[in-house]
């Protein structure tokens, strides 16, 4: 069931209890977790934090902790599957789920006792009504009771009544069949597309605000959570802009309190500011030139994998009057005269080159003399740490490192994350360039397909879901801009990359087609399931995003064929 | 030379200057005591001889042996006392149950001393702070907050706290627990205090 009052029905319920936090491995979940941890520290609510990387992990963690804990809080996992059936909990376990995955499973919505959804009821959900899906069993019992009563009537009338009863029974069965067919249709429509709702970090920030325990740190984490959804293309532009406006209100409220003529804040205090900043990834921690070359938006608009594109870039820089020497050095060392009007200069020139949206609404943070970060910088750095492909670190080690990087006291870790993110972005751009130049993207009819061979440089980076999804999106954007085939521009993309060479598995990701007004709804979750079933391929649907699966390399071709037939 | 064995005992302790307890060197101790016995007997016979026969030239050797005996005695008592001090520190570090490998290094008398020390510390703690007593082995440094966040560094299995609740300590899980329940494990290195 949906929680109406998050303070009364969630926070006060767990106030004197011990809770388990099960957190999924994405940045929004990490931010939500940090906010919730800070709230729990305030009120001294004892908790245990367990990172979970997939459904199996979730099941194991639940089994390990179910004896000792009654209350489970699931962050960014658990809403889109029938949780009670999967975990088989005892009757006194209560689950609080704050998940951005939609559609929310209908059993989770209509369970009144054990599942509490920390999701706003109007959050673009479209849940089918109760009567359409669930039918009370009592109705049938009454009817059979009537029949037996009627059967005891005198025999003269019996035959007529019997006929009537038979007719009624046939009518009922027909109605039931119709109802079931409609139910199947409704559920199919409801569960066909997977998409994302409001950020979990924002939900928990709202809880903090309602409790008036919100701090600037929590606000910053909420902003990072929202920006993560935008960077990884999980929400539509409209929703992003609306949510930014909500956050802007909170930011002005926080900023309003502190500064005036006489009492100005110390330089070490945290200041969050609204920025209408450039869409160049990590540009303040890199050189401007590198950032332009490695940001998806600019690289795709210029088509930097072609010679023509490189020339256009040089023209662009010349047009703005930026000398190459300046542009290639670290951003912090650029001349002040250039840095002052940089954003406006770039915006003006970009309009000439067809890049209308070079600036995006976002937030930046500023504490101490050296530390300035944009929200997207934090997202890229933390994502790189979370998915770093070091051999010795397990996934939970990476989770802990990424969680630490979000605290203000661990700037070193954040900087190492930024370095990793730079490497990741360079790798993505190079892979995109090579895929396009060697025509690795093939049209399979209803979708485009690309397979990264084992020897590809940096292929280890792409064995991780978030990195592969990012690569997928960049690749599709670049492909759409570079192909001349009009039909191909509207196709979705399926991408496969080797995951574990020893076990012989590949990771497969599907993303919806690229368009300006895309609603980001992804149907590959169901499609992958059906294709795997029909060919009995050995797949592992372990990831919380159903459009990402693991597959045995040998089954790749038959799985693809099944997918093609399914979607044609 | 005399007293060399005794110096070796001291050197053994000096090598482990960080408070670790090496194994009880029963052999070494026995050798020192044997040396002392031998010296004493020689001295006894010489003293008797000197007294009965008035041979004054034996007096320096008697004096030498006497000094060696005193030296040996001093070294041995220093050895035993330093070990006791280390064992006392173990109570404060490990709690009342010592790990098996440490207990292995103690001799029977030291174990007995340890249990006596435990008892007297316990009765002292009970006598403080009214009815319940006060556990002074907790909070060695002034605590900043009632509850702390700890991260588990290795798989420790299940951990039972005083009120009966059990927590599963798995690697890389984080917990928010009352300070006094975690202090012991932090000292042992299983948990790490997370400062954010």
TrEMBL record, chain B:
Descriptive protein name: DNA replication complex GINS protein PSF1
GO CC terms, sorted: GINS complex
Record-stated family: Belongs to the GINS1/PSF1 family.
CDD domains for this protein: GINS_A_psf1, GINS_B_Psf1
Free-text function comment from the UniProt entry: Required for correct functioning of the GINS complex, a complex that plays an essential role in the initiation of DNA replication, and progression of DNA replication forks. GINS complex is a core component of CDC45-MCM-GINS (CMG) helicase, the molecular machine that unwinds template DNA during replication, and around which the replisome is built.
Regions annotated as coiled coil: none
InterPro entries xref list: GINS_A (IPR021151), GINS_bundle-like_dom_sf (IPR036224), GINS_Psf1 (IPR005339), PSF1_C (IPR056783)
Any single biological process term in GO: DNA strand elongation involved in mitotic DNA replication
Gene3D superfamilies: 1.20.58.1030
Predominant location: nucleus
Oligomeric and partner information: Component of the GINS complex.
Keywords, comma-separated and alphabetical: Chromosome, DNA replication, Nucleus
Domain GINS subunit: 53-128
Subcellular location: Chromosome; Nucleus
Residue span, DNA replication complex GINS protein PSF1 C-terminal domain: 144-195
Superkingdom of source: Eukaryota
């Amino acid at each position: 069931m949906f929680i109406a009052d998050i303070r009364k029905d969630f926070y006060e319920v767990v106030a004197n209890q011990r809770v388990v936090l099960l957190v999924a491995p994405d940045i929004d979940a990490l931010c939500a977790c940090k906010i919730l941890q800070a709230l729990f520290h305030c009120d001294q609510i004892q908790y245990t934090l367990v990172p979970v990387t997939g459904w199996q992990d979730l099941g194991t963690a639940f089994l390990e902790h179910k004896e000792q804990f009654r209350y489970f809080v699931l962050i960014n996992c658990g809403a889109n599957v029938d949780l009670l059936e999967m975990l088989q909990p005892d009757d006194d376990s209560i689950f609080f789920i704050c998940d951005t995955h939609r559609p929310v499973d209908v059993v989770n919505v209509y369970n009144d006792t054990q599942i509490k959804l920390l999701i706003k009821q109007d959050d673009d959900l479209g849940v089918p009504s109760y009567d359409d899906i669930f039918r009370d069993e009592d109705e049938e019992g009454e009817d059979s009771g009537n029949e037996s009563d009627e059967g005891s009537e005198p025999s003269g009338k019996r035959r007529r009544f019997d006929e009537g009863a038979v007719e009624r029974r046939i009518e009922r069965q027909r109605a039931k069949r119709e109802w079931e067919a409609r139910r199947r249709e409704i559920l199919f429509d409801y569960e066909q597309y997977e998409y994302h709702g409001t950020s979990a970090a924002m939900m928990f920030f709202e809880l903090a605000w309602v409790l008036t325990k919100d701090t600037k740190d929590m606000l910053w984490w909420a902003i990072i959570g929202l920006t993560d959804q935008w960077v990884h293309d999980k929400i539509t532009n409209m929703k992003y802009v609306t949510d930014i406006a909500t956050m802007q209100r909170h930011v002005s409220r926080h900023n309003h309190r502190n500064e005036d003529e006489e009492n100005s804040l110390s330089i070490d205090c945290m200041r969050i500011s609204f920025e209408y900043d450039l869409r160049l990834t990590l540009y303040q921690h890199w050189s401007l030139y590198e950032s332009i070359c490695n940001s998806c938006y600019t690289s795709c608009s210029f088509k930097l994998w072609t010679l023509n594109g490189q020339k256009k870039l040089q023209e662009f820089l010349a047009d703005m009057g930026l000398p190459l020497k300046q542009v290639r050095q670290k951003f912090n060392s650029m001349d002040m005269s250039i840095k002052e009007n940089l954003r406006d200069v770039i915006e003006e020139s970009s309009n000439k080159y067809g890049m209308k949206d070079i600036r995006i609404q976002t937030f930046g943070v500023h504490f101490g003399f050296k530390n300035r970060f944009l929200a997207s910088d934090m997202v890229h750095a933390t994502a790189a740490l979370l998915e770093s492909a070091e051999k010795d670190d397990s996934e939970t080690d990476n989770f802990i490192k990424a969680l630490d990087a979000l605290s203000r006291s661990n700037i070193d870790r954040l900087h190492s994350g930024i370095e990793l993110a730079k490497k990741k972005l360079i790798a993505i751009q190079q892979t995109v360039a090579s895929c396009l130049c060697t025509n690795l993207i093939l049209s399979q009819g209803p979708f485009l397909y690309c397979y990264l061979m084992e020897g590809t440089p940096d292929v280890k980076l792409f064995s991780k879901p978030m990195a592969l999804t990012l690569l997928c999106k960049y690749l599709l954007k670049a492909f759409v801009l570079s192909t001349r085939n009009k039909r191909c521009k509207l196709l979705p993309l399926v991408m496969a990359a080797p995951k574990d060479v020893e076990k012989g598995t590949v990771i497969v990701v599907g993303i919806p087609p690229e368009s300006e007004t895309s609603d980001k709804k992804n149907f590959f979750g169901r499609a992958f399931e059906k294709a795997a079933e029909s060919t009995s391929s050995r797949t592992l649907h372990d990831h919380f995003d159903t459009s990402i699966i693991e597959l045995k390399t040998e089954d790749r071709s038959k799985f693809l064929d099944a997918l093609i037939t399914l979607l044609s | 030379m005399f007293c060399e064995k005794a110096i070796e005992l001291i050197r053994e302790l000096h090598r482990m200057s960080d408070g670790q307890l090496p194994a009880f060197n029963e052999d070494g101790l026995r050798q020192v005591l044997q040396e002392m016995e031998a010296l004493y007997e020689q001295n006894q016979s010489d003293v008797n001889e000197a007294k009965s026969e008035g041979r004054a030239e034996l007096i320096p050797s008697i004096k030498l042996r006497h000094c060696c005996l005193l030296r040996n005695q001093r070294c041995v008592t220093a050895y035993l006392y330093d070990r006791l001090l280390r064992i006392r520190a173990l109570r404060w570090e490990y709690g009342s149950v010592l790990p098996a490998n440490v207990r292995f290094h103690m001799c029977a008398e030291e174990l007995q001393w340890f249990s006596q020390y435990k008892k007297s510390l316990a009765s002292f703690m009970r006598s403080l702070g009214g009815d319940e007593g006060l556990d002074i082995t907790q909070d060695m440094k002034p605590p900043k907050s009632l509850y702390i966040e700890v991260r588990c560094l290795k798989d420790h299995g299940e951990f039972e706290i005083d009120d009966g609740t059990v927590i599963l300590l798995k690697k890389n899980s984080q917990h928010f627990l009352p300070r006094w329940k975690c202090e012991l494990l932090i000292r042992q290195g299983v948990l790490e205090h997370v400062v954010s």
